[in-house]
Amino acid sequence: GAVVSQHPSWVICKSGTSVKIECRSLDFQATTMFWYRQFPKQSLMLMATSNEGSKATYEQGVEKDKFLINHASLTLSTLTVTSAHPEDSSFYICSAGLGRPNSPLHFGNGTRLTVT
Amino acid sequence: AQTVTQSQPEMSVQEAETVTLSCTYDTSENNYYLFWYKQPPSRQMILVIRQEAYKQQNATENRFSVNFQKAAKSFSLKISDSQLGDTAMYFCAFMRSTGANSKLTFGKGITLSVRP
Q1: Would you list which residues of chain B are within 8 Å, Cβ to Cβ, of chain A?
Q2: pLDDT at B100 exceeding the cut of 60
Q3: What phi, psi does B73 have (nearest 5°)?
């Protein structure tokens, strides 16, 4: 079945530094990947849609300069949290589809980011 | 815009019993897809079941089945013979049918606890 790998699974960084999270589709090509953010016991909030070879589409209220997304290949999208602050601490999850209109999205295992 | 509503924040069920999780949605689309995802404590998102709106027959997957009422915009999940491993957060989600890679819109989720 379709597998999405996300790395790292957890990361601790100091305030002011940047952190990169990778999302890979292991056995399929993903022209589109999605980045979600989730706070404890809450739902997944879509941050942005990552499109291979073009600029990402950000949801309203998400700072594009803060959360940099790069989708340079059909199997890899990266999310970089720049100048991280404690309020950026959260669980970040990526997902990707198989490119068919009715295909369900497959999710990575998520990344727990803690900014100290 | 589409909205997904899960009004019950928590539910509890005795092992081997049956439980129904509620979900309603709002959309002006005629064709779309509905999903239930499970998120156990590991936080991995797992697809439980999906329903295509143009199909009248309710989807079933082993112990999981849905009651899809298109006119009422209702999409409930029934879990039969509940098992301890069913303990998790459950999210109802909506996807438009247009476009090769449509995003998922999630409800707030419900925490299900299965009691031994």
Answers
A1: 33, 35, 42-45, 47, 50, 52, 89, 91, 95, 97-109, 111
A2: no
A3: 55, 55
